[in-house]
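Homework help board

Subject: predicted structure for assignment chain

Our instructor gave us this sequence and asked us to write out the predicted structure in token form, then describe one feature. I got the tokens but I'm not sure how to describe them. Can anyone check?
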Amino acid sequence: MLFTLKKDEWFGNIKNDTLSGLVTAIALIPEVIGFAIIAGVNPITALFASVSTAVITSLTSGRPAMVSAAAGSMALIMVSLIKNYGIEYMIAATILTGFIQILLGYLGIHRLMKFISKPVMLGFVNALAILIFLAQVHQLVGGNQATYIVVFLAVLGMFIIPKFFATIPPALIVIVLATLTTMFSSVELQTVGDLGDMSGTIPGLTFPIVPFTIETLGIILPVSIGLSMVGLIESLLTLPLVDDMTGSQGDTQREVKSQGLANIVTGFFGGPAGCAMIGQSVINVKSGGRKRLSTLVAGLSLLVLIVFFKDIMIQIPTAALIGIMMTVAFETFDWESIKSIKTTPLSDLVIMVVTISIVVYTHNLAIGIFSGILLHMIIFTVNASRLVIEEMDDTIHIHGLLFFVSANQLTEHFKTTDWSHIHTINLDGLKVLDEAGQHVLEQFIQDIKKQSPSINVIQK
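My token output:
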């Protein structure tokens, strides 16, 4: 059953979930608006898409407290589609993305998570932390003195406020104080309303007005596949991070299906595809969110803000949100990965650095993750291809994995070894992985018998 009403997944943390949900709703606003503008989507439409995604995933996801919305990583994939073909094709691509993700959920794509190693995972987390921080710095360019002061005070407040008000999320206090400042003082600060045109209306149920042809499918399918993969990668890599932060276990297969359902519903409301958002998920958990109620409150609070309190919402200063997101970036970064550099194997360190570099440079999670996985596979193959050949008195012990890469090492050893004093070859520690390895092993034993028929070959 995809929808869940289990009491222990919803209640028991009502106050903290409610407050954290409110903070998360506000934290979603600038990023959603910013990337909506980049993609060419009306900000109100993107915000409502975030409402839809957050509400659907709160009811169906495999990871309570993980926040999903109209994410920037997804928006970047849709830019060229919207520019070249228009919003209707984006809607069609979003709906198709949802169906692809549900299909992948039933096919068990979540099992591929086991191929993502810890160095790649650390690279993903640290790269996103860096991207979150750089995005905030970019917004500060050209800001006035008051902006820098508010950012500094927001960062300071995120660390100091919890020492005095442990029961209220510090981000909520920072946002309220900063908003009151813009509303009742003459301080000039950029606000949410300055980010884009907020005059749009809430979209209703719609159906994409596109030709139902093979040509249309050819246009949207590549985009939908890209959206599906990036969305699932970001969601399935954010999930274990929330697992670690909350000390609980999520359901990856259910999460895949939930993301698909959310994108189908969002598409029929005319919105862009979404996925899990690591920054907002960290904010939610750090603010006390633990249950499904936190993300439901986030979605509903965002809806209330854009419908009933838009005039107040547009006066929230972006400087306060920038300061909050900077602290989120700081807390998201895995500082233990830096502290343990001296004890980390060089190969793991290289994989992590390459993953970080590619994600930060390309702003493309899929390319960065696949590059990290590919590099890890290459390093693993190189390490696994080294046979251990030990000569002890009159016995040779051969250990390791014998396959097409390592087979040549066995052949070369036969050519360079003096067999006159060898009585036994112990192959118990040798495991054959493929046909090439089996062929070389048979040839090796055959050559040994020809060289010295008295040699005893021990095999499993």
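Reply (TA_rk): Your tokens look well-formed. For the description, you could write something like this. Residues 336-384 form one domain. That's the kind of observation they're looking for.
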